[in-house]
Amino acid sequence: MGKKIVWVLVAVIVLAAAAAFFFNRYYKTQTPDTSLPDSLTVTLGELNQSNEFGVATITEQSDKTVVNVNLEGEVPSGVVQLAHIHNGSCDNLGDIWQGLTSVIDGQSQSNLEISMLDIANNLPLAINVHKSAEEPQVFVACGNISF
């Protein structure tokens, strides 16, 4: 009877260890990635001799993100300039990943329902500004998002 108890104890220990392993592996809660910054600045370089350049500031606020675009140089007055976050890089823009509020007089603020972690998980991404709503095929400024 003593050997039977030992085998039962061994079986219980093995089952408990296996249960703990699988529980930890499949049901573990994710902890937030605290290595990501709360704010990040993207340099927007001039494209197509537009003489428009500047910065975009991306700031996380409670799992949402605010993107402020500020252009300088020869910014057209009163012109609606489309702006987006695209998949890819400035050298190889892909599809639009997130729309941004259009830039007017060099300024734009967008409130997005995404987090910094969402941005980090979808890199490479780039912020792109278009010449106007009438000429969306002409890009005037772009910056690659990187952490």
Automatic annotation (TrEMBL):
UniProt GO molecular function: metal ion binding
Superkingdom, taxonomy of origin? Bacteria
Annotated InterPro entries: SOD-like_Cu/Zn_dom_sf
**Single Gene Ontology BP term?**
superoxide metabolic process
The UniProt entry's sequence similarity note says:
Belongs to the Cu-Zn superoxide dismutase family.
Name of the protein in its database record: CHRD domain-containing protein
Supply the source organism for this entry: Candidatus Buchananbacteria bacterium CG10_big_fil_rev_8_21_14_0_10_42_9
Task: List the taxonomic lineage.
Answer: Bacteria, Candidatus Buchananiibacteriota
